[in-house]
Write the structure tokens for this entry.
Amino acid sequence: MQFLKKNYLVILFFVIIGIIIYDYFFRQDFKNNYQKTGEYAIGTIHEIKPYGRGTGYNYLYLFKVDNKEYKGRCDGEMPFSKGPQNVDKRFLVLYLKNNIHSNSLYINIPVHDSIKNNAELEKWVSEHPEVRSKLDSIPGTGWFFENYF
């Protein structure tokens, strides 16, 4: 017990370093899974919900896969005043085949109304290389800490 009292700062330092390293590998695994088993869907934002003391907001969205509707949420990436303009608009959703609840809405990739289903969306993404570079972005560290701590 005396050892813990004397060296608690060193132990705390190594715990924090361990969390940061785990977070790094967790995000890399997240990115690799989306590249290997990721599927596309069309998401529609239905609500904007602020959190904290005006520090941020979440987009709440819905997307369909095989005629079943799923819910998701993601952080707002633009000023809150521009957020209401995105309600009822369509954006790209990337989800894992084996875990559909692990999904991400890309607010910077709007989906045109001419695209009606997920098969057409997949073809559209493959034809536009500029979309692929946006899909390779990794969620910020807040994603890990929000879900696990």
About this structure: Residues 42 and 49 are 20 Å apart (CA to CA). The beta strands are 38-51, 56-65, 68-75, 90-96, 103-110.
